Amino acid sequence: MDLNNLYSQIITENSRAAHNRRPVPGATLSLEGNNPSCGDDIVLQVKIENGIIEDLGFVGTGCAISQASASLMIDLIKGKTVEEAKSLVDLYLRMIKGEADEKEYIDRLEDCSALAGVSKVPARVKCAVLAWHTLEDALNNQNV
Amino acid sequence: MLSQYYKKDFKILSKLENDMRLVYLDNAATTQKPDVVLAAVKRYYTADNANPHRGVYELAMRATDVHENARSVIAAFLNAERAEEIIFTRNATEALNLVAYSYGLANLKTDDEIAVAISEHHSNLVPWQRVAEATGAKIVYLYPNEQGEYTEEELTSKIGKSTKILAMAHVSNVLGIENPVKFATRLVHQNGGIAVIDCAQSVAHMKVDVRDIDADFVAFSGHKIYAPMGIGVLYGKYDLLDAMPPFLSGGDMISHVHESGTTYAKPPRKFEAGTCNLGDEAGLVEAIRYVERIDIDKIREHETELCKKALEGLNSLGGIDIYPSVSSKSRSLISFNIRGVHPHDAATIMDSYGVCVRAGHHCAEPLMERLGIGSCLRASFAIYNDMEDVDIFIRSVEQTRKVMGIGS
């Protein structure tokens, strides 16, 4: 069953997520994201130097999907430029909506493509995009 | 079991969801609607539809009769003294807002107290917070004990001379056990205040007798008692309603309107501005008749039995936290968590077995904080649920633990 596969990948990912669950020393951006209907709440911290995202971390609580997607995002985004990060966020959001090309997202989103199955569980899309929307907001507002 | 006779009355329950039997256990959020209710709505629009209270032609008189007859049926159902004490609203939320903004704003002043049970649904809590802010009144929260019960000691220590309003649900939508509303109402009356009782979670599961409770205001939603969405009821003692200012204003709630000002109609029309929802009133009447034909005490007995079986099943699985964990009182719903599994993940996996349960904070965040959890699962029962539903529910919880890699 698809859902079992999706969850087994999520569980594996969450067991490896500890290294991303932490505040970021010298963070240049910090933004809270929440899903009011779930009570899920994360704070994402980002350190950007010379246009490069040097470090990211998150703290907070939520369901397995929201936590796994936050951790996977951090592994993918770390070391990328702000522009690359924005492009990857856009691709990920399209993948979760079921609108992205499979070859493209497997290629560019690496391990994050494990979450593509969420597009078949519409009620949980908001969990899978929480961290990504939070990062998007943080990057878009960094000069404000 | 009762349910074998009644399941067939609900078309939605005979349909397969993703090739599986639909095990609908989110009845505290909304119930399914029996065919007779849907037929009553259709009958109104195909035979009696016109704007009540306005036309002199026969069809309009018939529509007016539907409207006023619905009021009488609901008055009798709640054992109200007179039909004029029944006001139609969209739902319990609107009814509670009506009391807060009409009675609350007119009667509260600085340092008055509003006693609010911490387990209230946001709809019997947020309006009071807003009215407190506007008037300078203070909110005093009432807390349940470990068994989810509001003790006489707690109520006596919090309700006093400054208490002008008590806001308490007959049954909490999370804890699922009956609150001591009669005792609390008597106490607030002794202190010169009034009691606002939210019966949204009790009206479909046990007898609600407004005169026995001696409540000043009672609210419920039609859609939680097998009626359509969009129709709700406020009961209010006539003298209180008569003395209150209007809530919404416009058509049908006036006596006369002049350039210099307006005089208002008497209750209930003073509080029913604009055209009412007669089709759904007709549906609500049919839903009440449906419940009365089965007998509310039998419904309660049936649901209590299902709940007991479900509790036994959950307890035998182990690794389940139930809120409240222990209670001597009967429940019509069970709030719980599977240890180590976020409720949203659990509800998604249970859904894949055809089981519909609610996951989240249930519009009762202050209670969630009190319980020390962010959210939980809730299984709630109705007349059409049966032991097979309970068995499938328990198996789906077991499967959830497996999928999430918990237990053996």
Please describe what this structure looks like:
The complex is a heterodimer of chains A (144) and B (408). Helix content of chain A is 47%, strand content 19%. With 144 residues, chain A is α+β, with helices and mostly antiparallel strands. Chain A has a single domain (2-140), classed as Sufe protein. Chain: A (Alpha-Beta Complex), CATH 3.90.1010. Chain A is globular. Chain B has helices at residues 3-6, 11-14, 35-48, 58-78, 92-107, 126-135, 152-158, 181-190, 210-213, 238-243, 278-294, 296-317, 343-351, 365-371, 387-403, and strands at residues 16-17, 20-21, 23-24, 86-89, 113-117, 138-142, 163-169, 194-198, 217-221, 232-236, 254-258, 261-264, 320-323, 333-338, 355-356, 358-360, 376-380. In chain B, α5 (92-107) packs parallel to α6. In chain B, β8, α9 and β9 (217-221) form a beta-alpha-beta unit. Chain B folds into 2 domains: 3-25 and 295-403, Alpha-Beta Complex (Aspartate Aminotransferase, domain 1), CATH 3.90.1150.10; 37-292, Aspartate Aminotransferase, domain 2. Chain B has 408 residues and is an alpha/beta fold. The A-B interface holds A 1, 3-4, 7-8, 11, 37-41, 61-65, 121, 123-124, 127 and B 341-345, 348-349, 351-352, 359-361, 365, 368, 374-375, 403-405.
Offer a concise description of the structure.
The complex is a heterodimer of chains A (144) and B (408). Chain A is of the alpha+beta class. Chain A is 47% helix and 19% strand.
Q: Choose one word for the global shape of chain B.
A: globular
- Strand/helix succession of chain A: HEEEHHHH
The spatial strand order of the largest sheet of chain A comes to 1-2-3
Tell me the overall shape of chain A: globular
Going by CATH, what is the homologous superfamily of the largest domain in chain B?
Type I PLP-dependent aspartate aminotransferase-like (Major domain)
Count of separate structural domains of chain A: 1
Tell me the total number of β-strands of chain B. Answer: 17
The oligomeric status of these chains comes to heterodimer
What is the helix fraction of residues of chain B, given as a range?
Answer: 40-55%
**CATH-defined architecture of chain A:** Alpha-Beta Complex
Q: How many separate helices of chain B? A: 15
Largest interface (CB within 8 Å) is between: A-B, 20 and 19 residues
Average pLDDT score of chain B = 95
* Percent of residues in beta strands of chain A: 15-25%
* CATH level 1 class label of the largest domain in chain B: Alpha Beta
Q: What strand line-up does the widest sheet of chain B have?
A: 4-10-9-8-7-5-6
Q: What is the arithmetic mean of pLDDT of chain A?
A: 90
The CATH topology of the largest domain in chain B: Aspartate Aminotransferase, domain 2
Secondary structure: helix percent of chain A: 40-55%
Largest sheet report of chain B: 7 strands, mixed
